[in-house]
Amino acid sequence: MRQPAVTAMRRLAAWTGALVAVAAVGVMAVYFLLPGELRPREGAPAPNATTQVINKGEYLARAGDCVACHTPPGGKEFAGGRAMPTPFGNLYVPNITPDEETGIGAWTPDEFYRMMHTGVSRDGSLLYPAMPFASYTKVTREDSDAIYAYLMSVPPVKQPNRPHELRFPYNQRELLVGWRALYFSQGEYKPDPKQSAQWNRGAYLVLGLGHCAMCHTAVNPLGGSSESKAFEGGMIPNQNWYAPSLTSNREAGLGNWSIQDIKDLLQTGVSHRGTVYGPMAEVTYNSLQYLSDEDVEAMAVYLKALPQRDAEPPPTSQARLVAPNVMELGRKTYAQQCAMCHGEEGKGYPPGLPPLAGNQSITMASPVNSIRMVLNGGYAPGTKKNPRPYGMPPFNHVLNDEEAAAVVTYIRVAWDNSGTPVTPAQVNELRRLIPE
Amino acid sequence: MPTLALGQKEAVPAFTEMDSMEARVQGCATCHGQSGQGTSNGYFPRIAGKPAGYLYNQLVAFRDGTRRYPPMNYLVAYLPDAYLKEIADHFARQRPPFAPREDTAADAAALARGKALVTAGDPGKGIPACIACHGEGLTGMNPGIPGLVGLRPSYIAAQLTRWRVGERHAADPDCMKRIATRLTEPDVHAVAAWLGSQDPPRDPSPETSNLIRMPLACGSQR
After folding, report:
1. Which CATH class, in words, describes the domain spanning B108-221?
2. Pick from A162, A335, B26, B189: CA 20 to 30 A from residue A219's CA?
3. Dist CA A260 CA A271 (whole Å)
4. Of the candidates A333, A382, A396, which has its C-beta nearest B80's C-beta?
5. Cβ distance of B24 and A389 shorter than 8 Å
6. What is the pLDDT of residue A239?
7. CATH classification of A324-433 is 3.20.20.140, yes or no?
8. Which pTM does this prediction carry?
9. Tell me: the pLDDT tens digits for A251-267?
10. With an 8 Å Cβ cutoff, are A391 and B4 in contact?
11. How many Å apart are CA A279 and CA A264, to the nearest integer?
């Protein structure tokens, strides 16, 4: 039995060997006959685990809008150096490229997570809250590690950090211990089991990486924001823009918006209800336009569901009275300068040219943004879904204080709009704050 | 702050078709006019008919903050390259009529000096003639050199001064910087006054690119 078996095996081996040899010759023949024509492996190589984590980190870094602060305009990505004016002096944003000496190249994932989660830098120093660690603390360890992996993969840039120029006593980092005790509560986002997975995803993005509260919750003189006033709106320090309340339907509360309009506003920059300008245009341009439809929808669902709280009662009819001559000057100015794009009835041509009638951003208590738009004009951000936006021209040099105040008053009260009149002094104050 | 007459027609936003570039660039109208022809405000320049490459370079520089003028920096801050290119192409194609030129307050000697610098330069100081690069008709040269026609003296003088003091730059090698720093302050005003006193050309189109002829290497022509 053995013999035939061995023979059979030998035969098989010989036959296999011959076959392999023939096959090899065949392959070689193909190789030599068709040089460079060997077919590549089926499909593109599947991204390996490392690439997948880096891609995820890039997406999350977009959601966190890291680039907006850490990249100077026209400068190298993430190299820092950009001045961030604060009421306490200038902060200079650090280099977060993976350069070993001047960036974060020597950081470990643990150190990066500690910074995101607790606002403590690698060397143990406390970060100034211009870094939104009060929001980033909600980011999961897994997501923090992905962002870390992405930042390690970008080109390192050797550019030393510029020291901050903060006035005494704000240049004493130890004082941040007090700020942290008052305004910082550490902890990853805990999903609310009573809410849908979509709502929880939206909350995670809005409260965490989106760091929306940095602008949409009023900042007190100490640079802190109070959780009990979350998303109730406030002036953005040093930018002279008003970030409207997200909880009041009289401001940017989205309670009576459709989910589609909210999604459009966030991701596209324009919607049938209004358009983003100023600091929010920056957020859409650098961050929100890159998020997936699913994530933007989750944010919209969460924002729409925010409990409605009006910080103050609606204006009395007395407060809404407008002097007839002001109304007439406003109407005349509107007809001459504005009606071409916004229509006689203020309906606009949405989404390109926004409506003014029924537009909460025009009727809300603070007239700052409306006045600024009239003085400076503005283009909606150019986004993937709206790459060729329309723009409003500046009227700073066309309208004097009385005319600008009259036309802003007019659009705030015409067409059943529920706003209040503004004064030439309010226009003048903003005119002086805005650089010429 | 000078207030314009509300009725100045070319500074009031207007367009004929909603889904058009004409409608989309009305954000520029109150300063540069509906078609880029300029307005009666002394400072804002005519942009119609300037080379598309020049206009694009300026828009990118305003967006990225490498050319500083806050109202422009703010307006184009969040516009992508492709759209800025489209805006530049749009204005480069426009041929609106020129505004009537203004009388100059400059004296005859200054105008003579201005004319000499523009048409012949000052070889002793190493200053080439403006027309060597900006074109025989001063209508600019594709792709990156602007026309100097239809601009007010106040704008030309301000820009040359910004170049002299290092506030305005162009792509390296920055030929205009080399020239502007050789001009004296009276030279700047003489050039601006003479350019402002010229009648507009019949054909305002820029000359085609001619790198060989240029006296200095210019980054914006590459």
Report:
1. mainly alpha
2. A162
3. 9
4. A382
5. yes
6. 80
7. no
8. 0.88
9. 767 888 999 999 999 99
10. no
11. 17
